[in-house]
Amino acid sequence: MKTSWARRAIGAGIALTVGVALTGCGTSSGSSGAVSGGDYTGPTVNISFWNGWTGGAAPVLVPKLVDKFNSEHKNIKVKDVPQEWADIAAKMPLAIKAGKGPDVAVLHGDDLATYAAQNLLLKSDDIVKSLGYSADDFPKGVFDKGNYKGAQYAVPWSVTPLGLYVNKDVAAKGGVTDVPTDEKSYTAALQSLKTAGVQGDWVDSYVFTGTFQLESLIWQYGGELFNKDVTEATFNSDAGVKALTWMKSMIDDGYSPANVAQDGNIKALLAGNTAFNWNGVWQTTNSAFDGLNWEAAPVPQIGTEKAVWSSSTHWVFPANKGQDKNKTAAAATFVKWMNDNSAGWAATGELPGDNKVRNDASLLEKYPNLKPFMDELDYAHYETVAPGISEATATITTALSEALTGKKTPKEALDDAKAKADKILEQNKAKYGD
Question: Are 245 and 183 in contact (CB under 8 A)?
């Protein structure tokens, strides 16, 4: 995840007989630089791997995964280069253009199109095909996030949906023993808690987690954030107004205090001041939960449809100036091995994207708290794919803040945000092309 507190069979399996030559890379001696479904067999190479996991996920990435890969592949040495996600966004485009970028990297779903539109990533259709991947190998909708203008640029790595965290001791104060699943039971639980002097659901106006909760609700009410070709924002629809009005009602009805600070809701849950918090799967590894009587569940269905926000992360192959084909082929072997061995990544509070790994019964035996989040993947919604989309989606957070603080009505806030987002989308079209 793009925040410090959130982060975010051995080998390549049965080798495919086909070897697919890479295109768009520089040449290298000693091998054709072909990618195959099996292990890389070319000359010894050192490859660099850029990622944003600098916090609690780092000890899982290295040594438990990267070092293990290196020990099993004598002709590939992967150098892990962790950086803050913001630093990657600032540095990687320039580094790739100068031929000094990584050989493999991880990006979030809403970044992929921006990089692809600037020709910073290798078109990876042949790589993906050779590794044996298709959309059916990942949760519904995730694989397509790596597709831009008909070409595939990425391989999914992980997904991170929201869920409902429950402090069971606090819930019991209001006589709430069953986790609410819909608007009726959720409101009833909040009212019971209010009667007992507890504000049961603290809503905030920050990306983590207020924006993600709002987006989930927009989808639950049948809305979309943008139109199909992402030329116009649509989050100010009736669905959007209903969603934001519902969040504002948490404050108006006394179920939430006003002006909740960033991370104030999860801190309140841990401190025993509230019963419910919509938060990401990454919190399942939060050591502050140790000793707390808690459980996680799918987010309640407030609207007419089941829906929940989720982020996604993806492997990409940068198109460095003069990129070595052998290094890209070795990077592909690394990606396949990492996905095949991604069960251990669940220790970071992220769900492995590979269906075979994630659906193996042994994963839930080791990490039982992941089950409600896994159950949500059938109806999860992921990031919008369009160049420069992050700036446009940021207007949703502005609307949320304006509505929750009473500066504007939900409709006014969303209409104003839509106008700003549309201008940004128009600018993006001029900047990145059709």
Answer: no
Cα–Cα distance, 177 to 189 (Å, whole number): 9
* pLDDT confidence of residue 291: 95
Q: How far apart are CA 348 and CA 230, in angstroms?
A: 33
> CATH 3.40.190.10 occupies which residues in the chain?
19-159+311-381, 161-309+386-432
Count the alpha carbons within 13 Å of 387 in the hemisphere toward its beta carbon. Answer: 18
DSSP line for 27-54: --TTS--EEESS---SS-EEEEEEE---
| The architecture CATH gives domain 19-159+311-381 | 3-Layer(aba) Sandwich (3.40)
Tally of CA atoms within 13 A in the half-sphere of 328 that contains its CB: 31
| Token output for 5 | 């507190």
Q: How confident is the model at residue 139 (pLDDT cuts 50, 70, 90)?
A: very high
What does the alpha-carbon distance between residue 213 and residue 1 come to, in Å, rounded to a whole number? 16
Q: What is the pLDDT of residues 161-208, one digit of tens each?
A: 999 999 999 999 999 999 999 999 999 999 999 999 999 999 999 999
Q: How many helices (H) and strands (E) does the chain have?
A: 16, 13
pLDDT tier at 24 (50, 70, 90 boundaries)?
Answer: very low
The neighbour count for residue 273, using CB atoms within 10 Å, is 17
Q: Indicate the class that CATH gives domain 161-309+386-432.
A: alpha beta
Q: CA 209, CA 212: separation in Å to the nearest integer?
A: 5
Query: Tens of pLDDT along 93-118?
Result: 999 999 999 999 999 999 999 999 99
Whether 310 and 380 have beta carbons less than 8 Å apart is answered as yes
Q: What is the pTM of this model?
A: 0.92
Q: Compute and round to an integer the Cα radius of gyration of the chain.
A: 22
The residues pairing with 295 across neighbouring beta strands, listed in sequence order, are 166
